[in-house]
Design a protein that fits this description.
Elements (H helix, E strand, L loop, with lengths): L5 H10 L2 E3 L2 E3 L20 E5 L4 E4 L23 E4 L4 E5 L19
Antiparallel strand pairs: 1-2, 3-6, 4-5
The structure holds FE2/S2 (inorganic) cluster.
Length: 113
């Protein structure tokens, strides 16, 4: 077993970073994926046709590849998905910037970013 040089160790650490969409999540130790704020996926809401009585899990971290819903990518991020249960069928607007004050729905915050 050889001892990695500083350059090798750095390369290995960088390999632990996670690329999500156009973003790379800095992960210096390759163990924790804790984030201080969510990734901004887009500066507009996601219109989604929901069904009355159905439950949906909105991605709060911004890492999911199945936006606006959770795909489990939040593990270790410090964020958890937010449940939404539709009371009636129709179109709702899920937050895309991940900074709404009315999770999981858009409150217009994206217009201020
Ligand atoms: S993937 Fe973002 S909250 Fe689950």
């Amino acid at each position: 077993m050889s001892i990695p040089t500083a350059g090798q160790a750095e390369t290995e650490q960088c390999a632990q970073n996670q690329v999500v969409g156009d973003h790379e999540v800095y992960n210096p130790h390759g163990k924790e994926n804790a984030m201080t704020e969510p990734l901004m996926v887009q500066k507009s809401p996601y219109p989604v046709v929901v069904e009355a009585g159905q439950r949906y899990w909105w991605c709060a971290c911004g890492r999911s590849q199945t936006q606006p819903f959770c795909d489990g990518s939040h593990q270790g991020s410090g964020f958890e998905p937010v449940e939404y249960q539709a009371r009636k069928s129709g179109t709702v607007y899920f937050c895309g910037c991940k900074r709404t004050g009315n999770q999981p729905l858009c409150d217009g915050t994206h217009a201020t970013l």
